[in-house]
Amino acid sequence: MxxxxxxxxxxxxxxxxxxxxxxxxxxxxRVDLRSPIPLRERVEAAAAAGFTGFGLLSADLPAAxxxxxxxxxxxxxxxxGIVHLELEGIPDWWDDGPRRxxxxRVRTLMLExxxxxxxxxxxxxxxxxxxxxxxxLWAARFAExxxxxxxVGARLGIEFFPWSNIGSLAEALRxxxxxxxxAGGVVIDAxxxxxxxxxxxxxxxxxxxxIVGVELDxxxxxxxxxxxxxxxxxxxxxxxxxxxxxxxVAALRATGWDGPWGVxxxxxxxxxxxxxxxxxxxxxxxxxxxxxxx
Length: 294
Fold this sequence. Notes:
This protein is of the alpha/beta class. About 40% of the residues lie in helices and about 15% in strands. The longest helix is centred in the first third of the chain and has 19 residues, at about 60-80. It is globular, with a radius of gyration of 18 Å.
């Protein structure tokens, strides 16, 4: 059981620690994406900070399964009050080329885990290299994966990146609508919303049934380096940067969103902290943002 009981949280006020927020000294611009922190320590830290949701990256899943087995992971999460699970990362999910075999191995593992663990949703990302792409093929591949996610009791969300082939909320919604599967939707990250120049008011018009997840974070007014470098190394805790997070939260609540608020902090500062301190600060600052928007 957690060292500190998870506080009772009303629907619409729950927090989900996304995979990078609890990963410690790990980053998405490294060859090895795995977290050096054991899963139990990460889950205990998330529960102690009051998170009722937890994110796990596909790169960290094999070691966790080897250590605990899927039933053991499910028990670990349940024992610590984690009721929302996000599984993230199927590389090249759109591909038909030589990378498809490796992608399919990850896909199989993620779908098996989603079913065994009762995952809320799977999260995938666009092509960060922004190579030429076939929109119709991508829609078909997304629909295929959404159907597979639905088949194991989960949903599928795509997160847009401003430097990718799907660089805006509008582009992500277009892909989802083209795919046309009820289990498909978007993951809306405040960082990508702000850096893509999306008006906060646009969030209020997103169809609720297309919102799979929401992620909160902050950043300085000006980008340092490339967008990718800025997002990996220099995010800020909620309310400590330049974003209109209360406005974003209010707009998303206007859609009817009452799911968990993901908290995704990627920064050199965050990675240097002990995981309990890092998650406590991430949760505390996120709550300060969502509470006034009530």
